[in-house]
Design a protein that fits this description.
Structural class: mainly alpha
Shape: rod-shaped
Number of domains: 2
Number of helices: 1
Distance between the termini: 59 Å
Helix content: 40-55%
Length: 76
Amino acid sequence: MPFGMGRAGWFYGPYLAPWMRCWSPWLMAPYGTPFAPFTQAEEVAFLEEQAKILEDQIGQIQKRLDELKKQQKESK
């Protein structure tokens, strides 16, 4: 660790850079977060897209499970 700060490193309170507070919401951000929250329409679109992706992944998993079960039956 630089400057002999030991195991705490840069995350030790007194050594925390003051400029980090302006963009980090968990470090007393005086300027707020660097991004705006989702609008309701954006959140709905985001969640629909996530649901579509998850359904596709579940379909792929189910397809692979069916293939493995079929191979298992054939090998017996």
